[in-house]
Amino acid sequence: xxxxxxxxxxxxxxxxxxxxxxxxxxxxxxxxxxxxxxxxxxxxxxxxxxxxxxxxxxxxxxxxxxxxxxxxxxxxxxxxxxxxx
Length: 85
Fold this sequence. Notes:
Elements: H1 8-27, H2 32-83
């Protein structure tokens, strides 16, 4: 797989789009460092919440496995014994 060639027109389009977006962000009184800080803070929140969710779910998975795994094992062994006849 080859990447498309980057042409001068692509660079000009990127520059114009950056100019327009930069002007819009300046009009909204946003600073690049504020924007980067906001992204960093939100990513930290997302990963923190994901870690909390995993910790919460592992407890319930283990609790359910105490019942589910032995029942599955009995059914599996019964099916295996039935198939070996």
